[in-house]
């Protein structure tokens, strides 16, 4: 199981052009809400006033992430 997870993490690292000389760390989740939370945390909060931009049609987990970790939401209206 760990070999499959390691291969998946390496594949995503290659897609995102991670440096070959660095160590890539990753995880798996059982659902997209947890993945959004972990992805947001992995992006870091090193800035004075972090924000996240997403469409009004995006998953509610993005709003939850912003609320839980005090990140400003920049909501883009989306029409049908």
TrEMBL record:
Cellular component annotations (GO), alphabetically ordered: cytosol
GO molecular function (one): pyridoxal phosphate binding
BP term (GO), one: L-glutamate catabolic process
InterPro entries per record: Glutamate_decarboxylase, PyrdxlP-dep_Trfase, PyrdxlP-dep_Trfase_major
Homology family: Belongs to the group II decarboxylase family.
Protein name: Uncharacterized protein
Lineage, opening ranks: Eukaryota, Fungi, Dikarya, Basidiomycota, Agaricomycotina
């Amino acid at each position: 199981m760990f070999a499959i997870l390691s291969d998946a993490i390496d594949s995503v690292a290659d897609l995102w052009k991670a440096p070959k000389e660095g160590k890539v760390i990753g995880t798996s989740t059982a659902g997209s809400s947890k993945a959004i939370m972990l992805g947001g945390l992995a992006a870091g909060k090193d800035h004075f006033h972090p924000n996240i931009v997403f469409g009004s049609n995006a998953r509610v987990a993005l709003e939850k992430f912003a609320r839980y970790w005090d990140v400003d939401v920049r909501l883009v209206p989306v029409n049908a």
